[in-house]
Amino acid sequence: WILKPVATAYKAVVPQGLRIWLRNFLCNLETPIRVANCLLQGKLKEAGNETASFFLNTTLGFFGCVDQAKDKFGVETQDEDLGQTLGAWGMKPAFYLEVPFLGPFSFRDGIGFVGDLFLDPRTYIFADYPVMYVIRPVEIVNETSLSLGEYEDLKSSAIDPYVAVRDAYYQYRENKIKQ
Description:
The protein is mainly alpha-helical. 67% of the residues lie in helices and 4% in strands. The protein has helices at residues 3-13, 16-29, 31-40, 44-60, 68-73, 82-88, 107-119, 121-125, 135-146, 150-156, 161-178, and strands spanning 96-99, 103-106. A two-stranded antiparallel ribbon has the order 1-2. Strand 1 and strand 2 form a beta hairpin. The protein is globular.
């Protein structure tokens, strides 16, 4: 009720190129989270790729706004987080939560999210503006503006939207752990 209209207005005002630059910039800042979790999972090559991607995007990609590592050198980011690390170590998801403004979480991924805040440099760079209250909402609105309609498509094709979203979330996260 709140996020969709805000994201729709944001999408109408902010050009897609600028929204992609913001997503890339914020993703570049999250590199320490991904590197640490690659290392914790024993993925040394992926940790090296993340480090290389960070340096390429920071220097050649205007502080990460342009994904030069992927576009020019074929180096992909890994999308690793502490929830995946805990899953790789054998922790089960426990129960499913739908957290307002943050979206779906399992108990395991909630613990991982909190742990990742300590690895997130934005927590320290923007210490006067807590990540949870300023940066994260901007990131959520930006991400939602880039994927408007996906949730509605899933919801409209499901008999029980809650169960459909929960099952899709569990399958998505289990697939991420196996990669």
